[in-house]
Amino acid sequence: MKPLFHTATGKSVANFLNKPSHAVLLYGPEGAGKGTVAAYIASQLLGINTAQLDNHPYTAWLHDQQVTPIEDIRSLQKLMQLKVPGTHQYRRAVLIEQAQTMSKEAQNAFLKLLEEPPEDTLIILTVSDRNLLLDTILSRLQQIRILALPQETVQNYYQSQFSSTEIDRAFHLSDGYIGLIDALLHNNQDHPLVEQIAQAKNILASNRFLRLAQVDAIVKQKNLAVFLQALQRVCHAALVANIQKEGTATAQWKHRLQATVQAQQRLSANPQAKLLLTDLFLSL
């Protein structure tokens, strides 16, 4: 089934399918639906259904990893040395989701795959932050940006399945990115942001003492960046809702959003995670 695309993204995907290259990068924030687009492109060029990808004998799909070690890349190197039967232009696919999780050592090993890939092999990478990939890797990839959808498009697509209130809530929490919209509407707890959004809502609904009591547990999860992103989305959605309804909590949600964004900026400087979260929870 063809995914729901922003018009510009759809054109880029169609152009790539009409004239594919050996390697493509799909980029966009968490929840953009990059994995779904990657699966669609791979299935189209391999000539199979998307549902068959997981069991396709000549497809390697790395996903749901906090770190992609060099050993995984070496395994891909061995896979790509094997002969693949068939007559399709592309008979083998390598998909690496969240490729920015590759260590520098792994990225350097992966670069060798990009330099001389087999002609029958399609390589698809997805990233949330292109700046975390080596420039030498980026220069060898065709790039497609996964854009957010207009609210009207989302409403029209889901109106037969969900209420307008449910769709609006999911739209504002996701900033219009289809991957997270779909996960929220279907309550897909396997999606990392859905789980973290639920945790963020719990934190915001708690008093200061209960918030601080959860700092250690959140830090131990080792996905603070995803939690902060979820918290930012919840605060942004609440701020938009208050502005639209002319609510009395607009100033409070604006302050919470600003505090969360500042915490995200501080996180990029690799601070002490427990101290950062404690300071944030005291200011919410």
Mean pLDDT: 92
Which architecture of the largest domain per CATH? Answer: 3-Layer(aba) Sandwich
Strand residue percentage: 5-15%
* CATH topology annotation of the largest domain: Rossmann fold
Give the total of beta strands: 5
| Poorly predicted tracts of residues | none
**Helix count, per DSSP?**
14
The main β sheet shows up as:
5 strands, parallel
Counting structural domains, the number is 2
Basic shape: globular
Structure description:
By secondary structure, the protein is of the alpha/beta class. The protein contains 14 helices and five strands. The mean pLDDT is 92. β3 (92-96), α4 and β4 (121-127) form a beta-alpha-beta unit. α7 packs across α12. Strands 2-3-4-1-5 form a five-stranded parallel beta sheet, with helices on both faces. The protein is 55% helix and 9% strand.
Key phrases:
284 residues; alpha/beta; 14 helices; globular
Write the layout of secondary structure elements.
Elements: H1 7-18, E1 23-27, H2 34-46, E2 59-62, H3 70-79, E3 92-96, H4 104-115, E4 121-127, H5 135-138, E5 142-145, H6 151-158, H7 164-174, H8 178-185, H9 192-205, H10 208-213, H11 215-220, H12 224-245, H13 250-267, H14 273-283
Parallel strand pairs: 1-4, 1-5, 2-3, 3-4
Summarize the structure.
This protein is an alpha/beta fold and 284 residues long.
